[in-house]
Amino acid sequence: MDETRTPQPSGPSLATPQSPSTVGSSPGIQSGSGRRSKVAKSKNRSVACKPCRKRKVKCSGGHPCPNCAQAGYADECVYNPRDRKVRISQQYIDSLVRENERLAARSTSAIPEPPATIQDEEDARNPLLEDRPWFLHVNSLDMPAHIGEAADTAFATKFRQSLSSRQVNHILRTQYYPDDLLLSLSYAECPWPSPSRARFLVTAALRHVTPCFYMINEKDILNKLSLFSRDPTTLDISSTYKLWSLFALGELYTSRGYGREMIRFPGVNYFAQATRTLSVPSERPRIDSVETRLLLSVYYFALNRRHSAGLCASSAIRISTVLGMHLNIAESDYDSPAVRQHRIRIWWTAYICDRMWTTKTGQPVTIEEDRIEVELPSDERLSEAERASLGNTAVLKCSIELARLSARTINALYSRRKLSMPFSHRVQNILRDLRNWSQNLPPDLCITSDSEGLTSQTPSVLYLHLSFNQCIILATRPILLRTFQMFKRAAGDQRRFQTSMPPAVRGLAETCMQCARHSYRLLSASWIDGSFATFDYFNTQYLFSATSILAISSVLPSSQQQEDRDSFETAVHLLEQLRDSGSFAAKDYCAHLSAVKENLAEYEASLVSTELTRHGADQSANGLTGMTTGEMALSDPFILDFLAQPDLDVSFIDPSIYDGQLADPNWPMTPDLVG
């Protein structure tokens, strides 16, 4: 009977296995056009099994085929796999290439660490971390305040505790814009700026924010602003909140100071209006909600409300996942490639903010790497005008990878999870990945080591390298602090101090100091040319981080010790100027630096041996002098040797070797509010 003429039941049915000679045969295929029928026949030509092919007889198919069943070869009746050639579109190939690039860019850190298997748990612990999380009891709070050890202020406290033989309390952050005043301003009326003022503020915000973060389509928002100037009824509520956010950022970045009244803080009235969008979450959110929250998170930092900024960025991620922005979407679902790329770039900017913000507080990320499937940004099929409005793709892709490495640094080095890898090996892996990142930078995003490299950088390049230096500092400053503790323990025995440090550890400490020096030089050059915004939180934070490292390097023996002390004093002076201009972040950081200077003075006064003073210090160093970038610091021979070592000597950073003499001071649990 002809199998193709057998009546088929209507509706769905379970598929049954078929022989290679009949697979693909169905009434639907044979009843189609002549072309489809021809293709179907060519696809399903009978294939001979191996015994029939060997005997050169016709095979009628089946498992086993009749010939093999009759000859007793049923077990040997198998068919060779077929490799069919099919036609596919170039667009499909391009999508596969982009998907491969995205998967290749994803770090292996997305795979969870296995449980601890090493025998000595001390080897696995970051020297900065105590056995218990750090909580600070404060009378004004109903719960103890959690202090993340990855924060720059926490490291400053750790250094002060290492300097002093007295009880040293952490300085709790109190310099931020208060909740009640911000809430009252959100209910107050705020006049819309004039058309010329509005365009000025939006342009200023875009010029300062978009080079570093793609948070909004510049052309689109300027068009909406122009339409609103002609007809106020054309602006929807989502665009209104977005413009309030841009007005706030524009006024923030164009102001040099303000009076003593907090209500006059630059842009805060506009910002308070924009925060109304946070009051009622939308059940069907739009991408505008993501953009507005990203803009608000940047302004929250200017108010020194770091937790609020993190919550805003985390909320942007959550809304993005509701919209499915973390997943790939077909090009056919959008009218134009530019709209699709806008969606992709907004997602990755939210990803960058979520991860980079966590490096400032030590909080966990909102979404894990293995949940992200969306492709990386691309310029394919975009016109020149569309590429210009969507920002620099190379900068965005480099920022994505750096954000991934930054989050991995926090997760690998500042976590109390039981990890299978010793701390020094984790540092080694982080630095190896950071070095690969720097080596793969496009030439136009690199910074040279000459003086011109300090003054001719665009905001995006400057931010990239400051963030890169900060990531190296986060990875290496625990080693630097342990180096200082060993220096203090040497108590005047210079030879003992030099011989007690393995070369790789000495190179790690020097790398940390070189990155701090480079960040300080970049920021001081930015200050000199007038591009250092008074209320820019990120530059202020990077300056404080570098200053804390310079404070340590100013007491360690090196050929740049005196220069580091001078740079430390100058950096403190710059932060004090920012504090006097009204920067909340600078007020917070200056309180820590004042305490550091006090403890430094006490420490230096206690030194008896002239060999440990700045003027009598050993002038040995690694040879990294002059203008050294973070990339150059990772190319130092000691660091290259460290990165290549399969087995590392971790005894130097093992806290147990100090027998309690230099054990990490207990984090203060005090009811006192200092600062």
UniProtKB/TrEMBL annotation:
Residues 1-45 are annotated as: Disordered. GO terms for biological process: DNA-templated transcription; positive regulation of transcription by RNA polymerase II. It holds the Pfam family Zn_clus. Its main location: nucleus. Residues 48-79 form the Zn(2)-C6 fungal-type domain. Signal peptide: none annotated. SUPFAM superfamilies: Zn2/Cys6 DNA-binding domain. SMART domains: Fungal_trans (SM00906), GAL4 (SM00066). One of its GO terms (cellular component) is nucleus. Keywords: DNA-binding, Metal-binding, Nucleus, Transcription, Transcription regulation. It is found in: Nucleus. Gene3D superfamilies: Zn(2)-C6 fungal-type DNA-binding domain. Residues 35-44 have a biased composition (Basic residues). Residues 1-34 have a biased composition (Polar residues). InterPro entries: Stress_Response_Reg, XnlR_reg_dom, Zn2-C6_fun-type_DNA-bd_sf, Zn2Cys6_DnaBD. GO terms for molecular function: DNA-binding transcription factor activity, RNA polymerase II-specific; sequence-specific DNA binding; zinc ion binding. This is Zn(2)-C6 fungal-type domain-containing protein. It comes from Myriangium duriaei CBS 260.36. The lineage of its organism: Eukaryota, Fungi, Dikarya, Ascomycota, Pezizomycotina.
